[in-house]
Specification:
five-stranded parallel β-sheet; 9 helices
Length: 267
């Protein structure tokens, strides 16, 4: 690496079980390597928002061809909506599954991710929440190869199921800005967000039952994705999601100690 490692990092993946403690580690990488966070959750909200802003209120089933088990063509969708906006069409496709509580197929997730990643010119991103399946990992490697980009390394935030369940049931979220609090480790003053001054909430999916379901999903889907990337030459570094003393500096040290093992600095 050069004397300024931030100039050498193209893209990084941060992964781990839901509730493992990814965000504080992402924040370290953003600061240390001058990267942006590209979150699957934010991508979905962006494109769903674009479709919702369009104001279409009819059923979406008319855009689905049940005989072929796929959507009608984008040209047909554009004609029905009387628009020529690929972002709105992507939002429609995501909403079709989300509104029914169905798993969004990899093909749709991949299309949404590619659209967002392309706007960042396929570089200087921390991929958060993607890839989540082996098929998504295959798509990602094909995509970066096509656009002469790279994934430098994967940060796997490691934590036990028991700690994750204990932590997550006490997690609170600002419904406006998304800032995360914790009733024990980082309690919100007067139960309000320090940034927005609105009352924080307990997410409906932060129950023990749903947390266990997400933990199982990580083993079944995300682990094969990580293994595929590793088999294709992308190094994986493990960083602890639990620290005996949680401070910003301790988090930074725990991440950078592992990164520096991958990129030893000359002395």
């Amino acid at each position: 690496m050069s004397n300024n490692p931030s100039q050498d990092i193209t893209n990084v993946i941060v992964t781990g079980k839901s509730g493992a403690g990814k965000q504080p580690r992402i924040d370290v990488l953003k600061e240390e390597f001058n990267l942006e966070q590209l979150s699957t959750g934010d991508i979905f909200r962006k494109y769903l928002g674009k479709f919702n802003d369009y104001g279409y209120t009819k059923t979406l089933t008319e855009f689905w061809d049940e005989s072929k088990h796929t959507f009608i063509t984008d040209d047909e969708i554009a004609k029905k909506l009387a628009i020529d906006d690929k972002d709105i069409i992507l939002g429609l496709k995501a909403k079709y599954f989300v509104d029914q509580g169905l798993f969004v197929p990899d093909t749709i997730t991949n299309a949404l991710f590619e659209a967002a990643f392309s706007q960042k010119e396929y570089k200087k991103q921390i991929l958060d929440g993607y890839p989540r399946t082996r098929d998504q990992a295959v798509f990602l490697l094909d995509l970066i190869k096509k656009h002469d980009s790279t994934i430098d390394f994967i940060v796997l935030v490691d934590n036990t199921d028991e700690r994750i369940i204990k932590r997550t049931v006490q997690r609170r979220i600002c419904p406006k800005c998304g800032k995360v609090y914790h009733l024990t480790y980082k309690p919100p003053k007067d139960n309000k967000c320090e940034v927005c001054n609105v009352e924080v909430i307990h997410r409906s999916d932060d129950t023990e039952e749903k947390i266990k379901s997400r933990l199982n999903e990580f083993q079944e889907k995300a682990v094969p994705a990580i293994n595929y990337l590793k088999e294709n030459g992308i190094p994986v570094i493990n960083v602890p999601g639990h620290l005996e003393t949680f401070t910003t500096e301790n988090v930074r040290k725990s991440v950078m100690e592992q990164v520096e093992k991958l990129y030893p600095q000359p002395y």
